[in-house]
């Protein structure tokens, strides 16, 4: 268990949260949500002890072990992957190091013998003899093969380094587990594995994530950071979202009815207050008016972009023809002889290794050439593209956002470009920001403004939810559900993709699979699981 008592944190004169009293109990998983900048990660850092609150305290029972998903893999550059995982249990690792130092001595004193015996007892109590096998199992289940367990962390691929840090956090059955964006840079199957791990986990979990499917699957409660408070709700993310929206609508509707009643009473009083025969009725109406109180609806820190893709140009029957596309990279075949057609209104997901998927999407967008084969879009297609790597659109660009968007618009009027930026929450001074200083999420929102500006009837989206907060993902998801054109999407966000597609194209080095099914159905398909060795 971990709890807070009267916890407050401010940066300068700006309070992030105030007087937070909350208790996270064993056996539950708490999804910590809130708008970007609301203080989710900061609150998590307070819980971990990394950040000192302005007032109040965090309470952890004596002897309880807290584990945190670290973000800095450089700290473990000179450590093997296996040892980096074991270091997640700090006390166990300290005992192991001290034991080894004693046994390595040339001369072994009586004091050394006594100390070694004490350490061996504690080591056994902490299941130290199983530590290496347990750490190895975690690494293997996270997709790092046995042959790489003894490699130094600095020699691993970036995606493997992320998995080592995740294994480190999960290692040793901690009493309290704090996870900040644990699904970042993980493929779908690893995310599904983590979901199952947390479902089996019996202790306390507090997690920050922008993955709605993940939050829905693992969370028993939602801790909402908003209005400078942290409020606890039972249920998963979707339940919280639906009930909170319902409660807000009910308050707004109640206020609208009260406002109408107020206007009615005020009109009667104004009309008849000077009329002697109606004075008693006017006085009664005034008493009623005094009793009406509007519900206080505080402005939320959450802001939802307005995302809609118009299809003013009618899309013809012929959308996309792919004929024998083949691509290799560094001597490895990514995909070979891929053939399919995409029809009007059809929505398809592309899956496979990240490298293969990114190459395939880059070929379709015109940013990369295939080794063999060809593709052709229909003559009526107006293509909108959201690339995974958008750096070339912003690097070295000193333009403000209005002028940045003007580059892609036939209509050069400032108000026209401002309108598209405003939909993506860049209004007022925000629209005058330099394009070179944007965060990852802001860049994606700018790219979505660019895509909407083009009135596409076919969309090519590679990693569209990367860097976005839950509010932006929800808005994008809803906008794409209403989109009437054709869509090709690649994403690790299960809920996002499943809500959109009815067809999945799986890329492989020797074969590809063109499957007419939804995304969740595809992920659970026995044939797919057999291909990746899961059955």
Brief digest:
This protein has 535 residues and is an alpha/beta fold. The protein has 18 helices and 18 strands.
Which helices and strands, and how do they pair?
Blueprint: E1 2-11, E2 14-24, E3 29-33, H1 40-48, E4 55-59, E5 66-68, H2 81-86, H3 90-103, H4 110-125, H5 131-141, H6 158-170, E6 176-180, H7 188-200, E7 204-208, H8 212-218, E8 221-226, E9 229-234, H9 237-272, H10 279-291, E10 318-329, E11 332-343, E12 347-351, H11 354-365, E13 372-377, E14 383-386, H12 401-406, H13 414-423, H14 440-453, E15 458-462, H15 470-482, E16 486-490, H16 494-498, E17 503-507, E18 512-515, H17 519-523, H18 526-531
Helix pairs in contact: 3-4, 9-10, 13-14
Describe the 3D structure:
With 535 residues, the protein is α/β, with parallel strands linked by helices. The protein is 39% helix and 21% strand. A 6-stranded mixed sheet has the order 5-6-7-3-8-9, sandwiched between helices. A hairpin with a 2-residue loop joins strand 1 and strand 2. Helix 3 packs antiparallel against helix 4, helix 9 packs antiparallel against helix 10 and helix 13 packs across helix 14. The two termini are 36 Å apart. The model has no long low-confidence stretch (mean pLDDT 90).
Helix content: 25-40%
Task: Supply Rg.
Answer: 28 Å
Mean pLDDT: 90
Q: Characterize the overall form.
A: globular
By secondary-structure content and strand pairing, the structural class works out as: alpha/beta
- Discrete helix count: 18
Q: What proportion strand?
A: 15-25%
Largest sheet: 6 strands, mixed
Note poorly predicted spans: none
Number of strands: 18
Main-sheet strand order equals: 5-6-7-3-8-9
Distance between the termini: 36 Å
């Amino acid at each position: 268990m971990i709890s807070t008592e009267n916890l407050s944190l401010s940066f300068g004169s700006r309070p992030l949260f105030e007087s937070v009293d909350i208790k996270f109990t064993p056996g539950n998983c708490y999804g910590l949500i809130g708008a970007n900048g609301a203080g989710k990660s900061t609150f998590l850092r307070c819980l971990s002890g990394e950040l000192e609150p302005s007032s109040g305290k965090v309470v952890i029972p004596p002897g309880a072990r807290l584990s945190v998903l670290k973000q800095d893999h450089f700290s473990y550059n000179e450590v093997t992957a296996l040892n980096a995982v074991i270091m997640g249990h700090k006390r166990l690792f300290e005992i192991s190091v001290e034991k080894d130092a004693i046994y390595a001595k040339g001369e072994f004193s009586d004091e050394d013998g006594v100390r070694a015996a004490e350490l061996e007892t504690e080591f056994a109590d902490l299941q130290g003899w199983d530590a290496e096998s347990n750490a190895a199992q975690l690494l293997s289940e996270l997709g790092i093969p046995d042959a790489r367990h003894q490699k130094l962390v600095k020699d691993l691929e970036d995606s493997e380094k992320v998995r080592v840090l995740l294994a480190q956090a999960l290692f040793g059955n901690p009493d309290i587990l704090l996870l900040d964006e644990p699904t970042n840079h993980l493929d779908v199957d690893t995310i599904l594995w983590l979901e199952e791990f947390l479902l089996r986990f019996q202790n306390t979990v507090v997690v920050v994530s922008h993955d709605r499917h993940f939050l829905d699957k693992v969370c028993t409660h939602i801790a909402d950071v908003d209005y400078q408070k942290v409020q606890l709700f039972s249920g998963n993310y979707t339940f919280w979202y639906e009930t909170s929206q319902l409660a807000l609508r009910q308050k707004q509707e109640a206020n609208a009815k009260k406002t109408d009643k107020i206007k009615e009473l005020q009109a009667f009083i104004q009309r008849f207050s000077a009329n002697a025969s109606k004075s008693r009725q006017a006085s009664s109406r005034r008493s009623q008016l005094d009793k009406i109180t509007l519900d206080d609806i505080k402005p939320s820190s959450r802001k939802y972009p307005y995302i809609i893709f118009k299809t003013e140009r009618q899309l013809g029957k012929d959308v996309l023809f792919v004929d024998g596309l083949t691509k290799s990279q560094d001597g490895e075949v990514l995909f070979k002889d891929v053939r399919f057609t995409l029809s009007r209104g059809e929505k398809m997901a592309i899956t496979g290794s990240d490298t293969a998927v990114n190459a395939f999407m880059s070929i379709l967008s015109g940013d990369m050439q295939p080794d063999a084969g060809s593709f052709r879009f229909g003559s009526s297609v107006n293509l909108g593209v959201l690339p995974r790597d958008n750096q070339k659109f912003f690097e070295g660009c000193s333009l403000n956002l209005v002028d940045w968007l003007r580059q892609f618009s036939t209509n050069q009027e400032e108000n026209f470009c401002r309108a598209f930026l405003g939909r993506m929450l860049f209004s007022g001074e925000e629209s005058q920001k330099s394009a070179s200083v944007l965060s990852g999420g802001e860049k994606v929102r700018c790219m979505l403004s660019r895509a909407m500006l083009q009135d596409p009837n076919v969309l090519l989206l590679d990693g569209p939810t990367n860097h976005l907060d839950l509010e932006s993902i929800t808005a994008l998801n809803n906008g794409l559900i209403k989109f009437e054109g054709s869509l090709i999407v690649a994403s690790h966000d299960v809920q996002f993709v499943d809500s959109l597609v009815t067809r999945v194209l799986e890329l492989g080095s020797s074969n590809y699979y063109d499957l007419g099914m939804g995304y969740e159905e595809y992920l659970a398909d026995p044939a797919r699981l057999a291909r990746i060795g899961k059955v």
